[in-house]
Design goal:
- By secondary structure, this protein is α/β, with parallel strands linked by helices.
- It is built from 10 helices and 9 strands.
- A 6-stranded mixed beta sheet has the order 2-3-1-4-5-6, with helices on both faces. Strands 7-8-9 form a 3-stranded mixed beta sheet.
- It starts with a helix and ends in a 5-residue tail after the last helix.
- Bound molecules: guanosine-5'-diphosphate (GDP) and magnesium ion (MG).
- Magnesium ion (MG) binds near residues 25, 26, 47 and 66.
């Protein structure tokens, strides 16, 4: 029978998305899923914890683990983020190691590739050369050659543009080859492991990252204090934790204008994601050093 045959060939497994901050890991995952399950901004270190994005079709379920970028940083938060990325690699059936080919190969990327190259990681590795839309054509072949030198036994090297969706299907076909034949773990229709509460916090954080400059985004966290379903949709109350007293007025803006704009944009995104009316209330609270405090990080789901 047809359904029997497709069950037998069904593949399901975990792909860890690894790479330096800002190479496009979250963009790729959202594009494949078709919904913004991981927030994306031009700033590094946007993704703070491990996020699952689940892609299911008739023959496969690919469970992506989007990870915080692998980077250096002295704070407890940074150390937790890097630990999360390495732990994700340990859980995966295949590693998708991503780099940005629109910029020259940097030392951090090289070190990352060497860290996972032959003999050091048991899983097959697929190198994803992202942002080809922005890269010079003449740069691609030398880059591929260099990758082959760095990791000669990699399973594949796939140039893509996550943002434009170029060659992403080819990448999926390549990844699926290394997933076990197994039934789906998640029901079709599930696309992330995050709760609506967590997604709400992330959408607010995304707007803060987009609106604010310098160190403020990196010293900000969002805590959802209430999440209620109402007759018309959902009501959300969120507290924005900032690292310093002087950050508060900057975040609030003149006459509350900045806070209002952050709230409106986050609300609009959430309404698309949830498919219902969203009422979002935001407060700002000063909490110096939250990012270096293990207990607070645990409460915010950033324990690593
Ligand atoms: N031009 C171009 N920009 C991209 C591409 N993929 C991601 N970006 C941009 O790169 C930035 C970082 O992307 P993000 O997905 O947050 O990177 P992550 O830190 O690795 O998760 C964002 O501004 C994206 O819009 C791509 O294929 N082409
Ligand atoms: Mg990310």
């Amino acid at each position: 029978m047809n359904s029997q045959a497709s069950t037998e060939l069904f593949r399901c497994g975990i792909v860890a998305l690894l790479g330096r901050p800002n190479v496009g890991k979250s963009t790729l995952m959202n594009g494949v899923i078709g919904a913004k399950v991981a927030i994306v901004t031009p700033k590094p270190q946007t993704t703070r914890h491990r996020i699952l994005g689940i892609h299911t079709d008739t023959s496969r379920q690919i469970i992506f683990i989007d990870t915080p970028g692998i980077h250096k940083g002295g704070k407890q938060l940074n150390r937790n983020m890097v630990r999360v990325a390495y732990a994700a690699a340990g859980e995966a059936d295949v590693l998708a190691i991503m780099q940005d080919v629109s910029i020259p190969l940097d030392r951090g990327t090289r070190a990352l590739i060497e860290r996972f190259a032959d003999g050091r990681s048991p899983q097959p590795r697929i190198h994803v050369l992202n942002k080809v839309d922005k890269a010079r054509k003449s740069a691609l072949l030398p880059r591929l050659a260099e990758m082959q030198r760095l990791d000669p036994n990699a399973a594949a090297f796939v140039p893509v543009s996550a943002r434009k969706g170029m060659r992403v299907d080819a990448l999926l076909d390549e990844l699926v080859k290394y997933l076990p034949v197994a039934p789906p773990v998640y029901k079709p229709g599930w696309y992330t492991d995050q709760s609506q509460r967590q997604l709400a916090a992330e959408y607010v954080r995304e707007q803060i990252f987009l609106a604010m400059q310098q160190e403020i985004p990196f010293q900000t966290a969002v805590d959802i204090e209430a999440f209620r379903e109402s007759q018309t949709g959902v009501e959300i109350e969120a507290v924005i934790l900032v690292g310093g007293e002087r950050h508060k007025p900057m975040l609030i803006g003149k006459g509350g204008s900045r806070m209002k704009s952050i709230g409106t944009k986050a609300r609009r995104g959430l309404e698309i994601l949830f498919g219902c009316h969203v009422n979002l209330k935001l407060w700002v609270k000063v909490d110096p050093g939250w990012f270096d405090h293990p207990g607070k990080l645990h409460d915010l789901g950033l324990g690593g």
